[in-house]
Predict the structure.
Amino acid sequence: MKKLNVGMIGGGFMGKAHSLAYAGMPMFFWPAPAIPHRHTVVDVTEELAKDAAARLGFDNYSTDWREVINNPEIDIIDIVTPNNTHAEIAIAAAKAGKHIICEKPLALGAEQAKEMLEAVKASGVKHAVAFNYRRTPAVALAKKYIEEGRIGKILSFRGTYLQDWSADPNSPLSWRFQKKIAGSGALGDIGTHVVDFARYLVGEITDVNAMTKTWISERPVQTGGIDKLGTVKNGGEDVVKASVDVDDEVITMVKFENGAMGTIEATRNAWGRNNFLTFEIHGEKGSLAFNYERRDELQVCFADDPSDAKGFRTVYTGPATPYGEGLWPIPALGIGYGETKIIETYDLFKAITEDTEFSPNFEDGYVIEKIADAILESAEKGQWVNLEKATVDVK
Amino acid sequence: MKKLNVGMIGGGFMGKAHSLAYAGMPMFFWPAPAIPHRHTVVDVTEELAKDAAARLGFDNYSTDWREVINNPEIDIIDIVTPNNTHAEIAIAAAKAGKHIICEKPLALGAEQAKEMLEAVKASGVKHAVAFNYRRTPAVALAKKYIEEGRIGKILSFRGTYLQDWSADPNSPLSWRFQKKIAGSGALGDIGTHVVDFARYLVGEITDVNAMTKTWISERPVQTGGIDKLGTVKNGGEDVVKASVDVDDEVITMVKFENGAMGTIEATRNAWGRNNFLTFEIHGEKGSLAFNYERRDELQVCFADDPSDAKGFRTVYTGPATPYGEGLWPIPALGIGYGETKIIETYDLFKAITEDTEFSPNFEDGYVIEKIADAILESAEKGQWVNLEKATVDVK
Amino acid sequence: MKKLNVGMIGGGFMGKAHSLAYAGMPMFFWPAPAIPHRHTVVDVTEELAKDAAARLGFDNYSTDWREVINNPEIDIIDIVTPNNTHAEIAIAAAKAGKHIICEKPLALGAEQAKEMLEAVKASGVKHAVAFNYRRTPAVALAKKYIEEGRIGKILSFRGTYLQDWSADPNSPLSWRFQKKIAGSGALGDIGTHVVDFARYLVGEITDVNAMTKTWISERPVQTGGIDKLGTVKNGGEDVVKASVDVDDEVITMVKFENGAMGTIEATRNAWGRNNFLTFEIHGEKGSLAFNYERRDELQVCFADDPSDAKGFRTVYTGPATPYGEGLWPIPALGIGYGETKIIETYDLFKAITEDTEFSPNFEDGYVIEKIADAILESAEKGQWVNLEKATVDVK
Amino acid sequence: MKKLNVGMIGGGFMGKAHSLAYAGMPMFFWPAPAIPHRHTVVDVTEELAKDAAARLGFDNYSTDWREVINNPEIDIIDIVTPNNTHAEIAIAAAKAGKHIICEKPLALGAEQAKEMLEAVKASGVKHAVAFNYRRTPAVALAKKYIEEGRIGKILSFRGTYLQDWSADPNSPLSWRFQKKIAGSGALGDIGTHVVDFARYLVGEITDVNAMTKTWISERPVQTGGIDKLGTVKNGGEDVVKASVDVDDEVITMVKFENGAMGTIEATRNAWGRNNFLTFEIHGEKGSLAFNYERRDELQVCFADDPSDAKGFRTVYTGPATPYGEGLWPIPALGIGYGETKIIETYDLFKAITEDTEFSPNFEDGYVIEKIADAILESAEKGQWVNLEKATVDVK
């Protein structure tokens, strides 16, 4: 069976998730499109890179991502580094003719994303952005219902992504709170997942009207090097603080090309919400509701159910729903974060071996950057911003 | 024990709810501030009025509301008629020196509401608007937490009111779909309850930015006289249809005087949502979540809970929470719609006998009308509308 | 319209619930079978009785229940006194030719219940036992599904009634903890509601096999006279304690005549459970689940739903479900404890005016006592007890 | 870093789960106790075995499990075959001095389990039974609360395991319905997981009193070789059926050594329940509730919470709860079935490298077999069966 060699740039939280997916994908989807081989992992120091290779099951390690990109044995470059490094790596990888999967958000803004898209278009490689949540089987099931017309024309979409890991003012100022590295705050970090849901399930967004807030204006400087997502507190008397220059919370109204309307909200300051990535969609013939915190379930209500037995059904995904052929043999054995990445890897490897387009790809990543830029512009100006059809102006 | 005579104008769904409250209030809150006496009920025909009196337990009936208003035996006028009649009746009742409770929304717009407020201010009577949902014990408990500082400074508010009784295009064109009678659609009918929650729990609203949609532009003309809320379908080959000129759905962003921000959404076209009146509030020290469909429960998360036992608590209201002294002796015996009205009646009678202000009163009703007007204006103009401090310009 | 005069014996928590139902029933169900007239209420002292009349809206009061029973104006005797007084009052009322509604459990045991049944059979009056929970619309909907064969032959039933008001060892020793007054503990007080559900929904019980426990063997003697259900604590240094001689918790396995099997559990020592009266029923063609704490909802799963949209539906009761013609016009406006009693009153008045049998009546109450006795016998002996077909041996 | 070579006997559903765990464990728990190396996988034919090796990432494959057991390179034998083969393989592996992890239930009955236990005791190897559900972080958190006394002395336990994959009479007669292969039905297959919860969380079981039912007495003979858990239907006109000789459903009452009491229920015929593995535990100071279908969450109620903020907390497991150091950095990123197996592997490898006892081991597996045997005996005899202290009589 064909094997594809992966060079992974970065060995943190996302590196772990992707590595599990490379190892597990063929166990779930068999015959696999190709076997992922963990060839080389890159981290910033020799020590970290060596450790990552041992931990994540890579055969080799390196501290020089350019070397890896140019290694002829490598088929796929997997970019799981902070946002500000995505563009440089991806463009170089494209030039080197490697297929690319890049963590989200794609770039620090639309301009940068456009360059990345141009690069992959020019080289003809496959390109993917890791908005993995849309691969939750329950979200794929929602897509199936919508495509089959089972909830009718969509009227409205409400999406949220609420977390609380930065609600504590003593949680450290990681790179996620610094504009030059992260691009934006809650918007780019988590809000873009909701934008991806909106585009995937409803359609193209044409206009946005937003508000943003930075609730905690300065945070303790992080002393350790690793992104701890706020779980390590750096408070105390003599802590050094620095400014936060990204949004803690964003709320936006959106209009869709097909006439639907909606709201998108994201915050990392919502006490008690952990990974509360939700949507509710109302259609002319039914409704859908999803909450990633209970990700095995999709709620669906069909308008034409008998009036004495109408109501939201709690459908547990499993063998009878999308990706069911590969996943666990009984619903609610349980989809975890790992499984969403396994599915993503499966679809990526299928796209590569079958030479089809992966979705979401850099085009989607670019459009999402345009939308994110428009959201920030709208919040600043206090008015609607039109996206001039937020699609791709790159051939 | 003191008795207060009620003259109730209207004998429909709301008349039933209020009548149950008059009968039941002293059973729950004892000693009662005063005993409500169902003196006279008014309906449009002799037959309807007579029937209403028998059904709702009134001693007398009438078809002439002016006569009832001027009856010196009557202490309180209860207005449970369609929205377009509120102003005339209330102003007359105020002039006649009667205390007034008026169903929501108070008026067809801010201008009319202002006149009503001026009238009650001039006469010195007690005035109440029946936003009863804030009297759900779980909502009162949320208010208590907030006032006691238990969730800290409020950052954001998200409120929705979703129903589905008009999602079917064949549900009849009742008065609720006609601007001249209802003033607005989902906004006035149900959205104003969310506005009431927002002001009650968070504070004054200063700016709004909205979208509205009329999803179903015409509906079958209703043949019967009674408001059936869409449960009677009038479809068929030869049905006569007429235009809907109010909103089916409204989405608005809001800014609060205290710096909080939020969204308010209301629709009657959300399949599967019945009386989905919800809020979620994030504060610096905790979060609250409420859904009227499960109205015995308030969800609260406290930031300072131990890290291995932190999460939303599902608190069932009962003897230990607001109004618990009067309600059922065990939590979850069950709060229904009736109980919310019983509490409202209790607070109204207390305000009258103790000569204090009832809240929400016509001032609140007026401010809510200003906000509703601003929401419609914002939706039309596609921009933020400032409320010039949405408080009362009536002395 | 016909009027039926009620004499109510007892003015406590249950008296309040019944009084609200008498006042409210015609407001919901119109034309009413007959108008309930609150004629006379009885309590133990003149002061209490007078107060009850004012509070509950009765025209008259008395301290002598025999006098009321023999008052020719009275049509219905409503018994809402502690369990040990039911038999004497009911038998006297039957002899006086009055229709009777008696709170549950019917008696202190099967023997006493049999005498009560014989009395009402002899006199030909209507007789009802107030297992009101089966009148929750969602429970009536479950019955409808079962009768229409929509979940097929029933395989198993699991019912629980969990509360926590007596989990605190300092909650007072009310009459509910004294065998001579209450008959039994959690079993009679709340477990019998589950037995009523089991018989109502599944069928006759033939065998039981039980365990009981008294977790808290002594409690503070109650100083006030009123049953406070544990919400008033009597703890402290010098508190006088006395023995509890009833069960705090009961678990029983049951076999049904139709081959189904199940469990019934009841406890008042389950921290965090308030009025957690639940059932889950599995049939050959579907399943049902209900939790009174969320009583507007019935969960139902149909086996023949499409495999990609199968799951429990959350059906909110309303206009399209049983009793919907009388209740609130939108689902989830809200069923409270009051509404269950209003429906019970409606069905009782219909039985009286239409001369049909009310269910559950004294036959059911007697059978439930037999089952309760068998449960206690089983727990004591540690073995299955057969009920020799737990039906009625009274002609 | 130390490496341990695994020989896995069996390549089906469970083989997949274990293989994912071997690959993923070091990614989560680092430094790992030792690196699992997938050395050899065994299946019944050369074709299946070769396929399994490629799919599951093993270096070698074999059709001869004895050969693998005797391979000196192998450190650990992993038994993921049907129940009737466990004993022979495990005893041979013990004699060969290999550490053993065996899928549950350990054996076809207590007698066989005893022999297995004797074998591992004699050889001194580490031994584990794969009751993986107790490694769900939320279950481990429940254990932590209990051990820290946070819910006080335990009064009662209610556990269920409900599935619906065999509710359809046309689901095939896999080995799971044949006594000679499976030992028992729902009891051994899933009920034993609940028994494991009961012993893990509450303590030793001393007495059982049970009922069992075989609802569907014959099923279509399975034509394919692979266990499809009922998802492939074999119905049709000319289907060949054969008898089911195991239980479809089991209900048992249990008594614990420490005075607690409870119920355990298991069925694979509960429409709409997928992997509904639940427990509810009431203690003197609090309560716990868990449902594996929502496995990221543990419900806990503390009796000493303030009376106006008391209720079940929904705690999402994550960095602050057991195993949080290794799992995902934010709660609700999501625990799936894979993660439970990764944790199990971690604890097994730790036990091996640190020379401590793994729990649950063959002693536990043996005790659970004794309990299962007692449950079947009780159901047959219709009476309580005492377990003579269900602990281990093997030195």
